[in-house]
Amino acid sequence: MMKTMRVLLSICACALLVMAGCKKESAAEAGAAPAADGAAASSVLDLDDTTFAAATAQGVVLVDFWAPWCPPCRAQGPIIDAVAKQLGDTAKVAKVNVDKAKTTAQTFGVRSIPTLVVLKDGKTVKSFTGLTQADALVAAVKEAL
């Protein structure tokens, strides 16, 4: 079952890479480049199966389900860092590596990555699949506040 899931995720990731090829330029144009000092990255929580429930139980949280082998996920990373920096303390921003947090990924029905989910008090309010720009993510988080 897990091997089938990995194969499907790989196929989806490749398809997303092809579809998102032109979006990579717009992400850079939107100022989504990684911070040189790494400050934004430190504000993004790294969650797994054991820490997810407690970190997302209260408040608004933007969660990025990703994997290091996924090219669109790697393109989404700097965007997530920029969103975390833009949101500051108004909401949490977290990343979940689907290879390390398989139970959490299955619970949320993650079939394609990157999948981004906005949670409010532990419940899904909005979700996105594929490379998603910072302005759409910030708007979704602010709407959930």
Would you summarize the structure shown here?
The chain is an alpha/beta fold. It is about 50% helix and about 20% strand. Helix 5 links the parallel strand 2 (about 60-65) and strand 3 (about 90-95).
C-alpha termini separation: 37 Å
Order of helices and strands: HHHEHEHEHEEH
> Main sheet, how many strands, which sense, barrel?
5 strands, mixed
Beta strands, count: 5
CATH 4th-level superfamily: Glutaredoxin
DSSP strand content: 15-25%
Q: What integer value in Å does the Rg equal?
A: 14 Å
The strand line-up of the biggest sheet is 1-3-2-4-5
CATH topology: Glutaredoxin
What does the model show?
This protein has helices at 2-20, 23-29, 39-42, 52-56, 71-87, 102-107, 134-144, and strands at 44-47, 60-66, 92-97, 115-120, 123-129. It has 145 residues and is α/β, with parallel strands linked by helices. 48% of the residues lie in helices and 21% in strands. The chain has a single domain (2-144), classed as Glutaredoxin, CATH 3.40.30.10. It has 7 helices and 5 strands. The termini are far apart.
Topology summary:
Elements: H1 2-20, H2 23-29, H3 39-42, E1 44-47, H4 52-56, E2 60-66, H5 71-87, E3 92-97, H6 102-107, E4 115-120, E5 123-129, H7 134-144
Parallel strand pairs: 1-3, 2-3
Antiparallel strand pairs: 2-4, 4-5
Key features?
alpha/beta, 5 strands, Glutaredoxin, 145 residues, globular, 7 helices
